[in-house]
Design brief:
The complex is a heterodimer.
Chain A (H helix, E strand, L loop, with lengths): L1 H38 L3 H29 L5 H14 L1 H15 L6 H30 L4 H28 L4 H34 L3
Chain B lengths: L3 H25 L5 H19 L1 H10 L4 H20 L6 H15 L5 H36 L3 H32 L10 H19 L1 H10 L5 H21 L5 H16 L6 H31 L4
Helix pairs in contact in B: 1-2, 1-4, 1-7, 1-8, 1-9, 1-10, 1-11, 2-7, 2-8, 3-6, 3-7, 4-5, 4-12, 5-12, 6-10, 6-11, 7-8, 7-10, 10-11
The chains are: A mainly alpha, B mainly alpha.
Chain lengths: 215, 312
């Protein structure tokens, strides 16, 4: 019996470690985007991209290790399935952040000065959506009664992100840029908004896991 | 003394069939490993039989007086019936098999005590209904408690796992206390065994059946009737254990199979009748009605052989 508890504690620690790696990834992502908005493309931004990529890879490795341990039957099948599903959905968040940075770097995206603030605001609301999702995860693990309240916050951030995306795309197409540039920027906007879309999907899953445990 | 062999065979067949009733839901849904369940079940069956088994033995002794050869016939017929049902993966009532055999022997020898029989048959009807009611009550009260505490995902998991093991062990204890009378109760009448020895031999035989041939029926109870989650599995096992334990205290050997099927159906009622697999339910009900009849028919055949060879 003690062996089982140790195994469970071990998984709990691994999962906490995974979420800390995701947090680190998002912190680096935010720093990299801040550099991009201030200095544009360049060495400093490249370093930020690499650092974010490294953190994302580490989180991936940790997730795979957790999955293998979970398949070792450390928890009840129901909890195991819920956790595996949650990790899989959550993992798409740091992945979305990394994809944005790679897209900017590989497609040499240059933002017009008049739209920089709106892009920064879009990144900001999407990072907030991530933070709200993290709060919901924490709540699920430590204070499940409050989980449904925290997942609502993610929904609100997602709606706000949608609103900002639409405004930004409108502004892009109203500008004097050539059509190719407009389409490129529109794609970047959609990539940025994907963080909150995925945050919302993760929050939905968290809500289901919490509701399943109410009798 | 050789006649006790068929009692040991009956005990083995009871263990192989009835272990499913206490740990089937947890094992079939992979919440508890088979060997963890089987070992705990074997230990607690013996403890339950030694602590409370003697009350049920008294009831059997009153129902139909036995000679050693009659006890042999009854146990052999009942054991063969239950083994056949285990082979068909059906959770059946060993009590019904034994009572079917006892009634036939009593009728053939004009020694049947109808009042004891009525008490037993009434309990057969009361057991599944009682277990279903206990399930519904436990589901609501424990559910309310869980919702109020609001345990985290990990503590929820941990407490349910403990709950499944504790409720299963309690169920095994109640199984031993209640059902050992089915196995060796018939040998106490003809003074072949003392009540204590009967409980010891019977429970060890049941434990043997649990450890060697119980996996198949566990799957029928745990997976094929109603899909259970960890909490409902825990509630069903606990309700079954409480129901059977109450009957053990009253001294009426009832069927753990009927109790767990009643409890699982209670879950089905709570979750909506559509969740119940009707095909499996019909198979189980066939097992219940067929068991006393098959057992009585086998008893009749063996009785005739003994009668023709002048061994009665």
């Amino acid at each position: 019996m003690v062996f089982l508890w140790k195994k469970q504690k071990n998984i709990q620690d691994m999962i906490e470690g995974y979420f800390e790696l995701c947090d680190r990834c998002f912190q680096l992502f935010q720093e990299a985007t801040a550099v991009y908005f201030e200095q544009g493309l360049g060495q400093a931004f490249d370093q930020g991209v690499e650092a974010t990529h490294k953190a994302e890879s580490e989180a991936d490795d940790q997730r795979r290790e957790i999955e293998l341990t979970l398949y070792g039957k450390a928890l009840l099948p129901d909890s195991r399935g819920d956790l595996l599903g949650l990790l899989e959905t959550f993992d798409r968040l740091p992945n979305a952040a990394e994809t944005i940075l790679f897209a900017i770097r590989t497609q040499l995206v240059v933002l017009p000065d008049e739209l920089k603030e709106a892009f920064a605001a879009l990144i900001d609301i999407n990072v907030q959506a991530y933070c709200a999702t993290r709060k919901a995860v924490d709540s699920l693990f430590h204070n499940p009664v409050a989980t449904l309240h925290t997942t609502k916050e993610v929904d609100e951030k997602e709606s706000e992100s949608d609103r900002r995306e639409r405004a930004l795309i409108t502004a892009i197409f109203k500008s004097d840029m050539d059509t190719g540039e407009k389409l490129l920027l529109k794609d970047v906007v959609i990539l940025m908004g994907r963080i909150s879309d995925r945050a919302e999907a993760t929050a939905d899953r968290i809500s289901i896991v919490a509701i399943k445990r109410q009798i | 003394m050789w006649q006790v062999i068929s009692g040991i065979f009956l005990g083995w067949s009871l263990g192989s069939n009835d272990a499913s009733n206490v740990f089937g839901t947890a094992v079939a849904s992979h919440m508890v490993r088979f060997w963890t369940a089987a070992i705990l079940c074997a230990i607690f069956v013996v403890l339950g039989a030694l602590a409370h088994g003697q009350e049920g033995i008294e009831t059997y002794r009153q129902m139909s007086p036995m000679t050693p050869n009659l006890a042999f016939i009854v146990s052999l017929a009942a054991g063969a019936t239950v083994t056949l049902m285990s082979y068909w993966k059906l959770p059946v009532s060993t009590s019904q098999a034994v009572v079917g055999a006892l009634v036939l022997v009593g009728a053939l020898g004009n020694t049947l005590d109808v009042s004891s029989l009525t008490k037993v048959v009434l309990c057969w009807i009361g057991t599944p209904i009682g277990a279903a009611l206990v399930t519904i009550i436990l589901y609501y009260t424990l559910g309310k408690l869980v919702n109020r505490i609001g345990p985290s995902l990990f503590s929820h998991d941990r407490w349910l796992r403990i709950g499944l093991l504790v409720a299963g062990s309690y169920g095994a204890y109640a199984l031993g206390a209640n059902n050992v009378a089915n196995v060796t109760g018939a040998y106490v009448g003809p003074d072949m065994l003392t009540p204590f020895t009967a409980c010891l031999i019977g429970s060890l035989a049941i434990a043997g059946g649990v450890l060697t041939y119980s996996r198949n029926v566990m799957m029928t109870v745990g997976k094929k009737l109603v899909q259970l989650d960890a909490f409902t599995a825990f509630v069903a096992i606990l309700a079954e254990a409480i129901t059977v334990h109450v009957y053990a205290l009253v001294g009426v050997p009832v069927s753990t199979s009927q109790a767990i099927v009643g409890a699982v159906l209670g879950v089905g009622i709570l979750k909506g009748a559509r969740t119940i697999n009707r095909q499996t339910l019909v198979r189980i009900l066939f097992g219940w009605t067929g068991t006393p009849l098959i057992s009585a028919a086998l008893t009749f055949a063996i009785y005739q052989i003994f009668s023709l060879t002048g061994n009665l």
